Amino acid sequence: MGLHLRRSILTLSLAALLAPLPALAQSAADKETARGLMGEGDAAFEKKDFNSALQAYSAAHAIMGVPSTGLALARAQTHLGKLIDARETASAVTRLPAAGREPPALTKARAEALKLVESLEARIPTLTVSVAGATADTVDVTVDEKPFPARLLGSPSKFDPGKHVVAAIAPGFQNATAEVTLAEGAKETVTLTLSPVVANAEAAPGPVAGPVASVPADTVTKKGVSPLVYIGFGVGGVGLIVGTVTGVMSLSATSAAKEHCTGNLCQPAAQDDIDSAKLLGNVANIGFGAAILGTGLGIIGLVTSGGSSEPAPSTTGLKVEPLLGPRFIGARGRF
């Protein structure tokens, strides 16, 4: 075997040893599956369905592990706003060893991955989280419900763009939360101020309470209102009702009596209606008089009401029942 041939064999052997490990284990079926996944990912990417593209590219990269599949995955992550993951994926692509005679497409993908890493460095926003009111070693801080290391408090940290929720808890302090929306390339600071928990009201000193007088449930205390207000307007209301009802009945009886009368001459059959009309008219007059008197007493009570506290009469104990009969009308009350 010539020297030139031996050198060629040695070169091919070294190239095989330096090739990426996943490529050595790839079968024809694996490659065909990866090609199909890349085709699905490209179609979804063109439709701006980046979630579907991400799934397809991720599966293809898991099979092939070459720069072209890694670059496609990093680009899908970038479009979804997962800038930190995209940078890590692209950085891993730049570290993939090159085969001795790899296809130009792989070399180009590695170079484009390096450019993507450099562009993402400036696009990833930073957030500085600080806590006031309590010592850092006693505070538990979370960002988007994930633990945030205490050693990073006060230092800029990388986060993906978008809305983030920062929370802090500490024994003896009230919880504190804050929301922040990070734009690409932004540099924001969030300071959570923890306030001590206020002691229970039972422990706080206060005025000593004296004996409390019990008030019956069926009484309502009205400060400064004279009893004449309730009595006067109550009597006035009953008088008005009685006067109105009996007045109407008196008019009805008078009308019935006129049917048996010609001028001032009336037949004996009209006598009962005449008597009823007179009686009801008198009762109506008495009712309207009571209404006027009661209203006057109520007004006097309002005028003379002073600043003292007086228990109001219980309205639940007042019962008024109208009494109607063929020759009488009235009302019966119970206080």
Mean pLDDT value = 78
Radius of gyration: 49 Å
Q: Alpha-carbon distance between the termini?
A: 134 Å
Number of H- or I-type helical stretches: 9
Q: Provide the structure class.
A: alpha+beta
Uncertain stretches of 5 or more adjacent residues: 1-24, 207-223, 307-318
Q: Fraction of residues in helices? A: 40-55%
| Strand numbers in spatial order across the main sheet | 3-2-5-6
Proportion in β-strands: 15-25%
Outline:
This protein has 335 residues and is of the alpha+beta class. Helices cover 50% and strands 19% of the residues. It is elongated and about 145 Å long.
What does this entry look like structurally?
The chain is of the alpha+beta class. The chain has three domains: 14-122, Serine Threonine Protein Phosphatase 5, Tetratricopeptide repeat; 126-193, Immunoglobulin-like, CATH 2.60.40; 220-334, no CATH class. Helices cover 50% and strands 19% of the residues. It contains nine helices and 13 strands. It has helices spanning 3-18, 21-25, 28-46, 50-64, 67-79, 83-94, 104-123, 227-258, 271-304, and strands spanning 126-132, 140-143, 146-148, 156-158, 162-169, 176-182, 187-193, 220-223, 261-262, 265-266, 309-312, 319-324, 329-334. It has a four-stranded antiparallel β-sheet, with no helix packed on it. It has a three-stranded mixed β-sheet with strand order 4-1-7, with no helix packed on it. A two-stranded antiparallel ribbon has the order 8-11. The chain starts with a helix and ends with a strand. Residues 1-24, 207-223 and 307-318 have low confidence and may be disordered.
